[in-house]
Design goal:
Elements lengths: L3 E5 L3 H12 L3 E5 L11 E4 L2 E4 L5 E2 L6 H9 L7 E2 L3 E6 L5 E5 L2 H11 L4 H16 L15 H8 L1 H10 L4 H4 L6 H8 L8 H12 L3 E4 L3 H14 L3 E3 L4 E7 L2 E7 L4 E3 L2 E4 L3 H8 L7 H9 L5 E8 L9 E12 L2 E10 L12 E8 L2 H5 L5 H22 L7 E7 L1 H8 L30 E3 L9 H19 L7
Parallel strand pairs: 1-2, 1-14, 2-10, 7-16, 14-20
Antiparallel strand pairs: 3-4, 5-9, 6-9, 7-8, 11-12, 12-13, 15-18, 15-19, 16-17, 17-18
Length: 492
Amino acid sequence: MAKKILIIGAGMAGLSAGIHACRNGYDVEIYEQHDLPGGLCTAWKRKGYTIDGCIHWLVGTRPGSQFNRLWREVCAIEDLEIIDHDIFMSIENRGGKVLHIYSDLDRLEEHLINHSPADELAIKSITGAARVVAKGSFPLEKPTELYKFWDVPLMLFSMMPMLKVMGRLSRVSIKEYLEQIEDPFLKEALSLVMPSGYSMISLISTLASLHSKDAGFPKGGSLVFARLLENRFFELGGKLNYQCGVEEILIEDNRAVGLLLKDGSKVYGDIIISAADLHSTIYGMLNSRYRTAKIDESFAHLPVYSSVQVSLGVNSELSGEAENVVVELDSPITLGHEHNRYLYLTNFSFDPTLAPAGKAVLRATLFSSYEHWAASADNKERYREKKEKLAELVISEVEKRFPAVKDQVEVVDVATPITYSRYTGVWKGSYMAWIVPPEVGRFKIPKELPGLNNFYQVGQWVEPPAGLPGSMLTGRHVIQIICSRDRKTFQI
């Protein structure tokens, strides 16, 4: 009789674990508190417009790439149309200067050097490192928990071309690295491509993926993509229980044996996997038992990135306008301790499925502390007023950059860190887990907790910053570990 695996959460990690578990002969049920798959990888409808809440770019969209092969194990990504941008991002300052982050590294290098010849060496150092990473691959298919003594030298050999780059850049933040740039606008523009507290290798890896056309946007957006994994799970015979939140993980003699659902019912299984938010899992469903010092310290001291998203449904054709642009504001917008001098704008006209014909969705993103919104979350009127005030500010800025939008806004949707926390249970509305400073170095939260048997945890918090590909990979890895324990050959 097949072992029963109960999985908490139908996000990328939970669905991935469920798919691989089904394929390897386990009896699998997923319990999801919401009525949709995807977790943070989601979207919602507003008067005919689709408001996308997640994907900016997805690593693994190029056929034959390493992550593309891994995605194909869990979904029919090959059935999606992938949209690749020639210009990944344009940065515009108030003085009228514009810098384009071209996806093609040769074009990017030429453009940046033309802007600042004095920074040629630094620019070529960045693009050169990205070219090296673009040609390499990481040893992803096998979890480190299953490494044998000979796997380490084999891994080092396979990564030889990238080791020098990684050794030089993994312990340096983007902000620190860019201090060598002389041109002020170039320095600022490059720091806006992704959060400057991240390791420089994160920026290099992103540029490498763009250059390889391996970081496109799946047409239809986040929820369409999540549905692909849901479909694969169903095809393999998995059972997905929607609107079934989990209250507690049942434990007997230090073994996870089942789940207490929020409706008071209990379900039992041989193995429990939590793909839910780590904070909710450890301090809620496990009642703070089995937590580790590393988990406590990380939640106590490491910051997280959270943001607010203002989406507009506009009765205007914007297909000829910039698609991803970062504009400098006349006056900063302060949200808690975050002072936004620039506004990130995405014009989704490149994906006509997200809006009615002749119309478009515009998304504005700003960094925002969770605490700024939590302070008024219990007062519905005050919370609503704060969202409306921010929306008015954003609309006025959008109209400056896209004059065709003026008086054409039909839908306004504001998603705050509170929104994401309420919707998915994610701690402080964080979309990428903790910000791990480069000096701390990359770390993992163990998939198993000391003293607790038959329990595993997966998702973005396990290997930060995981993103969608990393979360998916943790689901694969945990089933590989379970198969190894059961003396089964892992099937893909």
